[in-house]
Structures are given as structure tokens and as C-alpha cells.
Write a structure and sequence with these properties.
alpha/beta; 2 domains; Rossmann fold; two-stranded antiparallel ribbon; single chain; 13% strand
Length: 243
């Protein structure tokens, strides 16, 4: 059986497009395909009108397609601030030539990146841990940092893989609020995989439910939530149980 089988959907600019489904439904595999970590055996992936099926993750990153992970991938020995500052691509300080012969431009760029990083930490309410090693953060703070790293890029589409996983309820609601602000006030487009129904209901429209690598249904949250196939495949209920 294919991990992802004949899945077809499109995301409009400014949407928060939600995926739900049981473990093993193929959701994270789908993200890996979209983000260039895996190559599909059939089908095409288009991004901003361009066929990007064959592109690797780093190439998609430069086009504005970025992702987070269910288990955060922070650089645990670097500070929180440094984790953000290393994200913007093509910084002049990355080359030996610039460090020797264009140090003024290197210094100016680093100052601008640092300013942007502090603004991001202020938005995320993480300035108090700016100089802490990122590995010392709580699970929820690491998820906020992951979101912050997407803000340090010129992101056109952000893939969020289970942002609520391992996050306490207080930080979860804060994370939810930050995603909503980025979407509604700053125009970010998101695709979200999540098991937390409250987050899906609040943030996502449309919503897709997957099972066994296929799309069961796409629609608004209430339509998807009440579908008998979803109740059986995802929630372990039958129509009679739901009644």
C-alpha cells in the first residue's frame, strides 16, 4: 500500500489549510514530499505556478517554502538568538572573502539580522531566553522557536507538522495565537498537520482528513468532523456511537 496515494489538493494564498487523520495516515510523508525530503513515484507538486516536484529541500527553502517538525530540530548548543540569526540565507559573513575584504558589509548585515531576530523574539515573547542554549527550552518554547525560524525567511508557505505535540495548554494557546496573527495580519500561508481539534477548528479552513494514504473528505471543520468515515477512521466512533 502506498504511504500517499492519489492525494490532490490546492492551497490558496492566505489560507491556513489543515490536515487531520490517525497516526499512519500519510500526513507527515505528504509533508516530506511537498518539502522535497522525499521524491514522489508519480504525480506532480506545484508551488507558485512552478513545477517543483524534482527540487530538494534547500532549493525549496530559497523559493519560500519552509517547514517545522513534530520534534523540534533546534541547534541545542547555540543560543536562542543564534538559532534565529543563522537562518537567513546568503549572508556575506558565510564566505571567507567577505570576512577579509568586505567586513563592513558583513558587520552591517549581522546587525540587521540581529535586529530582526530580536523583533521575532519579542513577537514570540521569548526575549527573556534570548541568550539561553536552545536545548534548555521547554517543549512549547522550542515550538515557538521553530515558528520564529520560519519568520526569519521570506516564507511564502509554511508547513507546520503537529505544532501542538508536547506543548502545555498555556503555551499551546499562545502558539495558536501567534499563528493566527501571522496569518491574518501578516499574510502568511500555512499548511497545518494537527491532532488538537481545538486548534484545527480555530485556525483551519479548509480541512482535509486522511486515512491509509488517501483523502477521505475535504471541507470546513464541522463538515469534516461530523463525517461518518472520519468518525470511524480517526475518532474510533461509528454513526451510532456519535448519536
Amino acid at each position: 500500500m502506498a504511504a500517499v496515494n492519489n492525494v490532490d489538493f490546492s492551497v490558496a494564498p492566505g489560507e491556513v489549510f489543515g490536515f487531520l487523520g490517525p497516526n499512519g495516515a500519510g500526513k507527515t510523508t505528504l509533508f516530506n514530499l511537498i518539502a522535497g525530503a522525499l521524491q514522489p513515484t508519480s504525480g506532480r507538486i506545484r508551488f507558485l505556478g512552478e513545477d517543483v516536484t524534482a527540487l530538494a529541500s534547500h532549493e525549496l527553502f530559497h523559493k519560500g517554502l519552509v517547514r517545522t517538525f513534530q520534534i523540534p530540530h533546534e541547534f541545542h548548543k547555540l543560543t536562542v538568538l543564534e538559532n534565529l540569526m543563522m537562518v537567513p540565507p546568503s549572508q556575506p559573513g558565510e564566505t571567507l572573502f567577505s570576512n577579509w575584504f568586505a567586513w563592513g558589509r558583513v558587520k552591517a548585515t549581522e546587525s540587521e539580522v540581529e535586529r530582526q531576530a530580536y523583533e521575532t523574539l519579542e513577537f514570540l515573547e521569548l526575549t527573556h531566553v534570548a541568550h539561553e542554549p536552545a536545548g534548555n527550552l521547554s517543549g512549547g518554547q522550542k515550538k515557538l522557536l521553530e515558528l520564529g525560524r520560519t519568520m526569519m525567511t521570506d516564507a511564502k508557505l509554511v508547513l507546520l507538522d503537529e505544532p501542538a505535540a508536547g506543548v502545555n495548554r498555556t503555551l499551546l494557546r499562545k502558539l495558536e495565537a501567534k499563528i493566527e496573527i501571522l496569518n491574518k495580519e501578516r499574510g502568511y500561508t500555512f499548511i497545518l498537520i494537527e491532532h488538537d481539534m481545538e486548534m484545527i477548528e480555530k485556525l483551519c479552513d479548509p480541512v482535509v482528513c486522511m486515512a491509509e494514504g488517501r483523502v477521505l473528505i475535504e471541507g470546513d471543520f464541522q463538515t469534516v468532523r461530523s463525517n461518518p468515515q472520519v468518525l470511524e477512521a480517526y475518532l474510533g466512533e461509528t454513526t451510532g456511537d456519535a448519536a
